[in-house]
Design brief:
The complex is a heterodimer of chains A (313) and B (146). Chain A has 6 helices and 14 strands. Chain A is an alpha/beta fold and 313 residues long. Chain A has a domain of 73 residues. In chain A, the strands form 3 sheets. In chain A, strands 1-2-3-4-5-6-7-9-14 form a 9-stranded parallel sheet, with no helix packed on it. The longest helix of chain A is centred in the C-terminal third of the chain and has 11 residues. The two termini of chain A are 45 Å apart. By secondary structure, chain B is mainly beta. Chain B has a single domain, classed as Jelly Rolls (Sandwich). Chain B has a 7-stranded mixed sheet with strand order 7-4-9-2-1-12-13, with no helix packed on it. In chain B, strands 3-10-11 form a 3-stranded antiparallel sheet, with no helix packed on it. In chain B, a hairpin with a 2-residue loop joins strand 12 and strand 13. Chain B starts with a strand and ends in a 12-residue tail after the last strand. Classes of the chains: A alpha/beta (313), B mainly beta (146). The interface between A and B is medium-sized, with 36 and 28 residues. Chain A: This is LRC58 protein. Chain A: It comes from Crotophaga sulcirostris (Groove-billed ani). Chain A: Keywords: Leucine-rich repeat, Repeat. Chain A: InterPro entries: Leu-rich_rpt (IPR001611), Leu-rich_rpt_typical-subtyp (IPR003591), LRR_dom_sf (IPR032675), LRR_domain-containing (IPR050216).
């Protein structure tokens, strides 16, 4: 792009350079103080220099609200992008991403995130720290599981998960009361009750972590190595209302089917902190296949009916 | 957040003519056409149509795919219940798509099918807009295809 761009068009608000073969968006864009929408689809962006250096501190970094980089060659989310604190809409559909960086949580203003059509295999729990996220597209990837922390995305209205490698969903998905749309087709969702798999006894680290959490042992980030601070922040609460315990990695997994709209059965994975706990939804036995499949009027189903438009197809 | 159905003409009650707008990644459920003729023309972008056999009466297995094709701009397609069921999707992650649909006689409900089990479920179909005016949403619990 011409070097004098920002001088000649200081009032530029929308710029579409899609389909122009660009392999880099250069420094000439940095001084555009009013540019809120930048569309650069179907180019050759993805290598070093795809985004200009100093983006976060430049006028462009503050003004940008919508960025569309779909149909390019990004193999990872460029770190410069994560400095765009005002960004509301980001599309990286149809690139070559293998993962989502935990620092995605830096995009505090993000409402719309399109990551469909990549090679993503897992979703970091930090994605749940985006307070305004309402539209999340993860379709056509290689995702095997969704972290239960995503249930903290209270603003989420639309979640697209079709054509992935999901066999079940975390039970917490039902907590997304504002979720209006959920697409799940093209996933190898289990259709029959899956008996509980092996239970690995908790490690010493897990037991220490549980004690710290349940006894409210005070600690500060300066007391512990960074990896342990992060570990402690990932504690999940046991859904058994009589337990009140927490667990980290070691838990009992139990698949429960929940009816959506009275017609579709979604397998939800319940995590419990020990084999002695039971899911809040189950009655006595977890052993009978027909009993689990016939459970319909329980707290999980009531929550499921709150979800309005479910696109399962 | 999902594809929109926009009614353009209701043809004196004899047909419904509507424009569907599909964002990136948007797709429909597998559905039937309530004994009506259905014509579809691609006005912009591309749409993938996957045809399915009707599930067996007591079907309890994965539905059978008959064929699939990608319809390009200006291409037309036709379907009715005797031909089978279909799913229509915009599989592009970079381009939106627009299609023109003609249904005769008009219908406002159809069945959607779960691909994994063949179970069907009747749904009411709604419009995002009619004759250029936004149709306010009705908040109900239901699943919609088209």
């Amino acid at each position: 792009l011409p070097a004098g761009l920002a001088q000649w068009f200081p009032a530029l608000e929308v710029l579409d350079v899609s389909g122009t073969g660009l392999s880099g968006l250069g420094a000439e864009l940095l001084a555009l103080p009013r540019l809120h929408t930048l569309l650069a689809k179907n180019n050759r962006l993805g290598g070093p220099g795809a985004l200009p250096k100093g983006l976060g501190r430049a006028p462009l970094g503050r003004s940008l609200r919508v960025l569309n980089l779909s149909g390019n060659r990004f193999a990872e989310v460029p770190p410069a992008l994560l400095e765009l604190r005002g960004l509301q809409s980001l599309s990286l559909g149809g690139n070559r991403l293998h993962g989502i960086p935990p620092d995605i949580q830096e995009l505090r203003s993000l409402e719309f995130l399109y990551l469909g059509g990549n090679f993503i295999t897992s979703v970091p729990p930090e994605l749940a720290n985006l307070p305004s996220l309402s539209y999340l597209v993860l379709c056509d990837n290689k995702i095997q599981s969704i972290p239960p922390q995503l249930a903290q995305l209270h603003s989420l209205r639309s979640l697209s998960l079709h054509n992935n490698l999901l066999t079940y969903l975390p039970r917490e998905i039902l907590n997304l009361v504002h979720l209006e749309e959920l697409s799940l087709r093209g996933n190898p969702l289990v259709v029959r009750f899956v008996r509980d798999l092996t239970y690995n006894p908790p490690s010493l680290q897990e037991l220490a972590g549980r004690t710290i959490k349940t006894r409210n042992v005070p600690y500060a980030p300066s007391d512990l190595p960074e990896n342990l601070v992060r570990y402690l922040s990932l504690a999940s609460n046991c859904p058994n209302p009589k337990c009140g315990g927490v667990y980290f990695d070691s838990c009992v997994r139990q698949i429960k089917f929940v009816d959506f709209c009275g017609k579709y059965r979604i397998p939800l994975m319940h995590y419990l902190c020990s084999p002695e706990c039971s899911s809040p939804c189950s009655s006595a036995s977890q052993s009978s296949t027909s009993q689990s499949e016939s459970d319909s009027e329980d707290e999980a189903s009531v929550a499921a009916r709150r979800m309005q438009k479910v696109l399962l197809g | 957040f999902r594809y929109t159905r926009n009614l353009v003409d209701s043809g004196n009650g004899k047909f419904n003519l509507m424009i569907l707008c599909w964002g990136e990644g948007h797709g429909s459920s597998i559905h039937d056409h309530t004994d009506s003729h259905c014509f579809m023309k691609i006005l912009q972008g591309n749409l993938k149509e996957t045809l399915f056999e009707w599930p067996e009466k007591k079907g309890n297995g994965e539905m059978t795919k008959k064929s699939e094709r990608v319809l390009r701009e200006n291409q037309c397609a036709y379907i009715n219940d005797s031909i089978g069921l279909h799913r229509v999707e915009n599989i592009s992650h970079t381009e939106s798509a627009v299609s023109l649909h003609l249904y005769s006689p008009p219908f406002d409900s159809c069945n959607t099918f779960d691909q994994r089990t063949g179970h069907k479920h009747k749904v009411k179909m709604t419009f995002y807009s009619q004759f250029g005016e936004r149709t306010p949403c009705v908040s109900t619990t239901y699943c919609t295809p088209h």
